[in-house]
Amino acid sequence: xxxxxxxxxxxxxxxxxxxxxxxxxxxxxxxxxxxxxxxxxxxxxxxxxxxxxxxxxxxxxxxxxxxxxxxxxxxxxxxxxxxxxxxxxxxxxxxxxxxxxxxxxxxxxxxxxxxxxxxxxxxxxxxxxxxxxxxxxxxxxxxxxxxxxxxxxxx
Length: 155
Description:
By secondary structure, this protein is an alpha+beta fold. It has 4 helices and 8 strands; from the N terminus they run E-H-E-E-E-H-E-E-E-H-H-E.
């Protein structure tokens, strides 16, 4: 029996260690999750921390085709973060790897562990700009205008 796949989008970010290498490695690791294939990768982008301190972030977004249910996909992403040494010492702490499940098909989910669409994605250039690069139909011109004051540099 063939499993039904959903198109989902995952934001990646890191600002500790070799952040660019961490993001690239995480893209590969996401593609090796069970029943999951990376179908598109954005460019890497450099951004200043938002509501936080520390070094600049390297950010990207990947599109995946997955048969994993959204909560299981999130759990797998969090395991990748832990494997990369992610510590959640305080809110918006600098991080070795941050993976956020942005969109899961057209699903709208609201729960204590998972909200889809991601509740803060529309306020973040570091999410919208790379998402617009690989899935322009998912980001409106108005959304991009609202984050246009946030500095973001394509690498």
